[in-house]
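Appendix C reproduces, verbatim, an entry submitted by the partner laboratory led by Prof. M.T., so that reviewers can inspect both the input and the predicted structure.
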Amino acid sequence: MIVIDIDKAKAITKDRLRAERTPLLAAQDVAFQRALESGSDTAAIVAEKQRLRDVTSLVDSCTTTDELKALSCVAPTPEPVVEPVVEPAPEPTPEPIPAPEGEA
């Protein structure tokens, strides 16, 4: 029978997440600098960097290896909001004008 040491699995998962987030944090650092240079708002960048830093704390609440495997640094993408397509009402077609009687 194989017994998995959950504490060891948590440590391995934290190491995996740290390696996964390193290039993501570097990319956010570049985006932050560019935003500062252009005077753009940096709030979203700061929030994303904090989310990446906090990802390893999610490991502590996991109780199974499946939960550990599911953790990732990739930001969850929101489901796209699909607006219903409203078809325009068709243009009314004019009634054909009947030909006067006797003409063919």
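Residues 21 and 98 are 76 Å apart (CA to CA). Additional entries are available on request from the coordinating office.
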